[in-house]
Design a protein that fits this description.
heterodimer, A: Rossmann fold, 2 domains, disordered N terminus, B: Rossmann fold, formyl-coa transferase, domain 3, six-stranded parallel beta sheet, about 15% strand
Chain lengths: ~425, ~400
């Protein structure tokens, strides 16, 4: 799709990997918006679509993540959650339950390359805006559907959130203390997996479309993706009918291997020793060279069998040092160790700082805050850092006027009829 | 053009273990020709990692290798020999993509840095996957999964607040890195098609984990609150395992319906999310007896049938049985001349009606003749000389 020049007034960078690709991002919560965010940062023109009756729930279920915890007059534009994953996007509202909303949406689809959505399957079918309907408007449209369990099968309409997906995809069962109920506590890891994979799939589909003229719907099951990401564990069952269970921080072949307490409150370091040779070096670093001769720990098998004793000895050493110090000492000796960082340490970590991973962005309604980067970097076409996340409906006039050529009166009429707007439709949705 | 999205694309794969091979597995699945370059004799070290059938090690039967290398061709080539490097450069001339996951200093020491390869093929995309990225003070640090979760701020948040931080029990950083590398490669290829200019994609497994935080970084940036490990909530033991509930505000009436306790709707202790969190222990005590009498899948289906999000703690055995996976054809049987027929996780995506390429992983050096003779025009005699010289 030939991109009009209209949005480049807003965007300054020219060496963008995905320049000229237009994406309608209907994503909500996490997976969809994260996919859209990576596309936007790579340079696509991403238009986030919400409605006043159905804003992205993350706007208003922000778990109190407002600047200095102050919601302000328009809390829906001030949540750190919404502002993190919608940078570099345009934002519009459009009520897709109304006939006018559907009509305008189809006009947008006509001039776009990609639609991203992570609704439950029935939502778009209910609005008569599913893939068959959109394909009629634009046969070359690429629709990325990120659902919990895919668009087919007996459980296609089952609903999920991060924590339930981690369970049904097989991730949670592998994680936990051996003596306690599994504790996964990530909230959204399957969403992040999907969000990282989906942009690549979309670009592959664009390549196919450029060659054949044909669009497609991409059906991504987040549950299957979670299982896809424990492939070698699945193979153990396929080969040996062996079910792996949560093993805490223990490793199947390395010892010592674990997370050890350090000086200070709730400070820890991880250590992983892979060979006898590494073990001898480790003993040197601890200042206990005699330990390397101790028959209880002489080779990997004896170390593995005597892990509890071993961990006690290591703990006595680590407790006397700061976590960063233990890590540096071991790394300097070519051994694997990692300080367990909390958020304050993470934002101040020398490595991420030198790589410029976090960067400060100023949002007109929230203020200036640092945001994390993305899981990929392109050296010639760096990720874009240009625009803060849009406030609800911020680019209505821009998109409807410039992209669709609607008159000011027509847009105002949509506003009056509640098709578009900038304020969530109810007090509850405003979170005030 | 083509029957698959990436047909016609040529990929030189210098990767090993998990993250890198995952990236090229995806490229192969979508139709690219992936030529995996392995060390003569040993091959990808993943070939020595388990699982093995009946726990009998055999470099052609590693489950890790077989799973992560579907759809690829294998050639052997000694990159520590000058002839090996020359042959690799010949391959690079004709390739679109090179993917590698060596420690960052290795490509340079082999004389294969981006600036050198760019001169051979300016359209080349090099995707480099490493623990910490191609720059920065930790660039040459050693790491494995747990160290990356630790330095990524993730481990601090996992587990019980009264106990040590916990690692995730799978290769989260490796897989996230592989998926991100795939997306980065595709974006760089798109740019090549538009402009003719290749580039290097820099994937840091650490950054993949930091980017995967759900809310802790924003919470810290916006409010100064440093997140800690939380007690586990809404996870219940049941008759044969574990179930996990999700409780958005509008799900509360459905939960009371599921467990047949409509009176809870009137209970002031559970009026809103805040009070339910405050009185979580009382809620747990009320729900536990109901859960413990029922099986995981019974609760899962009963909840889902009224639109209430329940998940069950699926083991790998459960996943192989999952009706949803069977209905969608997610699990695929792949025949391998040495390992036999096994059921693998297939593809989590379907792209319209385009089939995914699921052909088996290659034997070590299986495609030497096809690539060296067929592609580079070497003679059988050359092949013998290279073999004797330890190059292939």
């Amino acid at each position: 799709m030939e991109s009009s020049e209209y949005s480049w007034g807003l965007f300054m960078t020219t060496n963008l990997a995905l320049k000229g690709i237009r994406v309608l991002d209907m994503g909500m919560f996490m997976a969809g918006p994260y996919c859209g965010a990576i596309l936007a940062d790579l340079g696509a023109e991403v238009i986030k679509i919400e409605s006043c009756r159905r804003p992205d729930p993350i706007r208003v279920q922000a778990r109190g993540i407002y600047p200095n915890r102050i919601p302000g007059e328009r809390p829906w534009n001030r949540s750190g959650m919404i502002n993190e994953r919608n940078r570099n996007k345009l934002g519009i509202t459009l009520d897709l339950t109304l006939p006018k909303g559907k009509e305008v949406f189809k006009r947008l689809v006509k001039v776009s390359d990609v639609v991203v959505e992570n609704f439950s399957r029935k939502v778009l079918t209910g609005w008569e805006l599913d893939y068959p309907a959109l394909r009629e408007v634009n046969p070359s449209i690429i629709m990325m559907s990120l659902t919990s369990q895919g668009l087919t099968g007996p459980e296609k309409d089952y609903v999920s959130f991060g924590p339930t997906l981690e369970q049904i995809g097989g991730l949670a069962h592998l994680t936990g203390y051996p003596d306690q109920i599994s504790a996964f506590a990530s909230f959204a890891y399957p969403d992040m997996l999907a969000g990282a994979l989906a942009p690549g799939l979309i670009i592959a589909a664009l390549r196919y479309r450029n060659g054949t003229g044909k669009g497609m719907q991409i059906d991504l099951s987040q549950r299957e993706l979670a299982t896809f990401c424990i492939g070698e564990v699945m193979m153990d069952y396929a080969m040996n009918k062996r079910v792996r269970n949560e093993a805490g921080n223990r490793h199947s072949s390395m010892a010592p291997y674990g997370c050890y307490p350090c000086q200070g409150e709730d400070r820890w370091v991880t250590i992983a020793i892979a060979s006898d040779e590494e073990w001898r070096r480790f003993c040197q670093v601890m200042g206990k060279p005699e330990l390397a001769e101790d028959t209880r720990f002489l080779d990997v098998l004896s170390r593995w069998k005597n892990q509890d004793e071993l961990d006690g000895i290591i703990t006595r050493w680590t407790k006397e040092h700061e976590h960063y110090d233990v890590m540096r000492k071991l790394q300097e000796a070519g051994l694997t160790a990692g300080a367990v960082l909390d958020m304050r340490e993470l934002f101040n970590d020398a490595h991420l700082k030198e790589r410029d991973f976090f960067h400060v962005e100023t949002h007109p309604e929230a203020g200036s805050f640092p945001y994390k980067g993305r899981p990929l970097r392109l050296t010639r076409t760096p990720l874009r850092r240009e625009m803060p996340a849009p406030s609800l409906g911020e680019h209505n006039y821009h998109v409807y006027g410039t992209l669709l050529g609607m008159s000011r009166e027509e847009i105002q009429l949509m506003e009056k009829e509640g098709v578009i707007g900038t304020v969530p439709a109810s007090k509850e949705l405003q979170f005030t | 053009m083509s029957e698959a999205p990436l047909s016609g694309l040529s990929v030189i794969d210098l990767t090993h273990y998990i993250g890198g091979p995952l990236c090229t597995k995806l490229l192969a699945g979508m139709g690219a020709e992936v030529i995996k370059v392995e060390q003569p004799g040993h091959g990808d070290p993943a070939r020595r990692m388990g699982p093995f059938p009946d726990d009998l090690p055999d470099h052609e039967k590693s489950g890790t290798f077989l799973y992560l290398n579907t759809g690829k061709k294998s050639i052997t080539l000694n990159l520590k020999s000058a002839t090996g490097i020359k042959i690799l450069k010949d391959l690079v001339k004709e390739a679109d993509v090179l993917v590698e996951n060596f420690e960052p200093r290795v490509m340079q020491s082999l004389g294969l840095s981006y600036s050198i390869l760019e001169r051979i093929n300016p359209r080349l995309v090099i995707t480099s996957i490493s623990n910490f990225g191609q720059t920065g003070p930790y660039r040459d640090y050693k790491a494995e999964e747990m160290a990356i979760l630790a330095l990524g701020g993730m481990m601090y948040l996992i587990g019980d607040p009264e106990r040590e931080p916990l690692r995730w029990g799978f290769e989260a950083a490796q897989y996230m890195g592989g998926l991100s590398a795939f997306t980065g490669t595709m974006a760089a290829l798109h740019y090549v098609e538009q402009t003719g200019a290749g580039q290097q994609v820099d994937i840091s497994l650490l950054e993949g984990i930091v980017a995967s935080h759900f809310q802790a970084p924003e919470q810290y940036a916006y409010t100064g609150v440093v997140a800690r490990r939380n007690r586990t909530m809404l996870v219940f033991p049941c008759k044969d395992g574990v179930v996990q509930l999700a409780l958005q505000p509008h799900h509360w009436p459905k939960l009371t319906q599921l467990v047949g306790m409509p009176e809870l709707l009137e209970d002031p202790r559970f009026r809103d999310t805040q009070s339910r969190t405050r009185n979580y222990e009382a809620l747990e005590t009320l729900l536990l007896p109901w859960m413990i009498e029922r099986s995981m899948t019974e609760i899962y289906h009963a909840g889902q049938s009224i639109g209430f999000p329940v998940g069950y703690g699926a083991t790998t055995a459960d996943l192989f049985e999952a009706p949803q996976y069977h209905a969608r054809g997610f699990l695929v049987d792949i025949e391998h001349p040495r390992a036999g027929k096994l059921t693998y996780p297939g593809t989590p995506v379907s792209m319209g009606d385009i089939p995914w390429q699921h052909s088996r992983a290659p034997l070590l050096g299986e495609h030497n003749e096809e690539i060296y003779c067929g592609r580079l025009g070497l003679s059988r005699g050359d092949m013998v000389r290279l073999r004797e010289g330890g190059v292939i």
